[in-house]
Amino acid sequence: MAEEQTAVQKMLGDFAPELVRLTDDVLFGEVWAGEGLSQRDRSLITVSVLVALYRADQLAFHLPKALENGVTKNELVEAITHIAFYAGWPNAMSAISQLKSIVESEPDSR
């Protein structure tokens, strides 16, 4: 039976195999698997950095992942609101709009 492809394998496939390997093996295989922080805390930190840096494309993956990892909708709203004062209103508004769409698309699971 063939092993299921990761999201980055599906997205980049053979186009950038080394980036795919580093993403799967190092970033998610080692960095995210470290014992110093919970998956929940890593998600909250990652979302915060992505909001601050205005990386909306990456938020599309990491906002649902944060919810999956136990960060609540209210915690994400609070974090994004807080970040608005330090990283800019447009960054926060973009992120909160994405979060709203994600939460409204699957209301029973959030």
TrEMBL record:
Domain Carboxymuconolactone decarboxylase-like span(s) in chain numbering: 17-99
Keywords of this entry: Lyase
Pfam families reported for this sequence: CMD (PF02627)
Top-rank lineage group of the source organism: Bacteria
Molecular-function GO terms, alphabetical: 4-carboxymuconolactone decarboxylase activity; peroxiredoxin activity
EC number: 4.1.1.44
Keyword Calcium listed: no
The protein, known as: 4-carboxymuconolactone decarboxylase
Species assigned in the record: Streptomyces griseoloalbus
